[in-house]
Design goal:
globular; 14 helices; single chain; Rossmann fold
Length: about 400
């Protein structure tokens, strides 16, 4: 059903991979600097104000980019449009949602509305079992919630007992196969934002054990042991695309807009990371990008010099610091603009890459004998990871898609 759309996306991403198959931090100049100098000149000429406008309203950039990238698709291209599922309002008692934060509750609530089944529920990678509890209460079905952290299981058990719900918890590591036996032909497996290999393992297990239904919202495709992504569908396996684990992050790079302070801190963090990279290249005569781990954001309230000392200690580096670090921050500022310009281009490939990955999963289930539906289950302001895969073996009717 989705093979044609997948092939179109595959051809598009392959043809234009020069404009998204890169890690911007690793480049001091554009990857297309020699092959598309016109695009490079256009980006270099952007003022800081124009750059900021295009970051906020990338659709306004398309008309200019089309001049330099002939086959570039707009952000709202018809190939990317996935119709939302219809949903009904549900009056939920306050005690069922009192311990769940607003946006998380909105995701759980919207997801639950699309679980239409008569089968017992298996909640994959359940955490505290919030999703399972709502399904159990609403559908009046038994729920088995599978979670590998025992403390979370204990909390979920306590809540289920308090609310008198038919929800049980099983402590298991799904990646080692400890939960495979729970996936069987008499159940409906649900997985809301199970990351990377967690939902891939479920899809592979569905091929073997054939659960009656699955409802999956994939997330964090880069959280995998695969160095190079290994497609799971027949169509995916013949693709010429080679996507590294690091580049899979592009598919989840679209985020809900954060507050001004958080944006400023993020900008400063990137600048300091680039500044340290410029410093280490100078001092160590090293041309390769030097990555740093996550760090306490309190460091950002100090001086760049303190950040440098932290980075050197964290990476066990020893070299003499110049008297002034201002030069390297200035280089970082120039480089940061190029990074942001590269991101302006790569953002046009976020949606097609994510859809390519989701269709690969949907087609893998289709290859295994399932009837599959791909839709969105909530507004992207609730979560940018709003794509939903529904699969069923029997003739249960899938939810209707909402009218435009």
């Amino acid at each position: 059903m989705y093979n044609n759309a997948f092939q179109q996306l595959d051809n598009y991403l392959t043809e234009l991979q020069h404009y998204w198959q890169f890690e911007a931090f690793h480049y001091s100049d554009y990857p297309w600097a020699e092959t598309n100098s016109g695009l490079s000149d256009f980006l270099d000429a952007l003022t800081d104000q124009e750059l900021q406008i295009y970051q906020q309203y990338p659709d306004q950039l398309y008309v200019h980019l089309k001049t330099f990238i002939e086959f570039l698709r707009p952000l709202n291209d018809s190939l990317y449009v996935i119709k939302p599922l219809s949903s009904a309002q549900l009056n939920v008692p306050f005690w069922l949602k009192s311990s769940i934060k607003g946006r998380k509750w909105s995701q759980i609530y919207a997801f639950t509305q699309q679980v239409n089944t008569q089968y017992p529920i298996v909640e994959w990678c359940a955490g505290k079992g919030h999703l399972g509890r709502l399904i159990c209460w609403q559908k009046q079905l038994p729920v088995t919630s599978i979670e590998w952290q025992q403390p979370l299981c204990d909390l979920g058990i306590a809540e289920a007992i308090k609310m008198q719900l038919a929800q049980t918890f099983k402590q298991a590591d799904v990646l080692t196969g400890e939960a495979d036996s729970y996936v069987n032909e008499t159940c409906h497996v649900v997985a809301l934002h199970a990351c990377g290999d967690l939902h891939l393992h479920l899809i592979k297990q569905a091929k073997k054990n054939k659960p009656a239904q699955l409802t999956i919202s994939p997330c964090c495709y880069h959280l995998t042991t695969q160095v190079i992504y290994q497609p799971c569908s027949v169509s995916g396996k013949v693709s010429r695309l080679k996507i590294s684990k690091q580049l899979l992050k592009l598919a989840v790079s679209k985020q809900v807009v954060s507050g001004t302070r958080q944006s400023d801190l993020s900008q400063q963090e990137v600048l300091w990371r680039l500044g340290f990279d410029e410093l280490q290249k100078h001092c160590l005569n090293n041309n390769n990008y030097f990555s740093l781990p996550s760090f306490p954001k309190t460091l950002l309230s100090g001086q760049f010099h303190s950040f440098v000392l932290w980075a050197m200690q964290k990476k066990s580096l020893t070299f003499d610091l110049p008297n002034s670090l201002d030069l390297f921050l200035e280089r970082a500022k120039n480089r940061l603009k190029k990074v942001r310009c590269m991101e302006l281009i790569s953002q046009f490939f976020v949606r097609p890459l994510e859809l390519w990955l989701v269709y690969d999963r949907a087609l893998a289930l289709q290859d295994s004998g399932y009837k599959v539906n791909v839709s969105t289950f909530c507004n992207e302001q609730v979560t940018p990871r709003n794509l939903l895969i529904q699969a069923h073996l029997k003739e249960e009717r899938l939810p209707e898609v909402a009218n435009d």
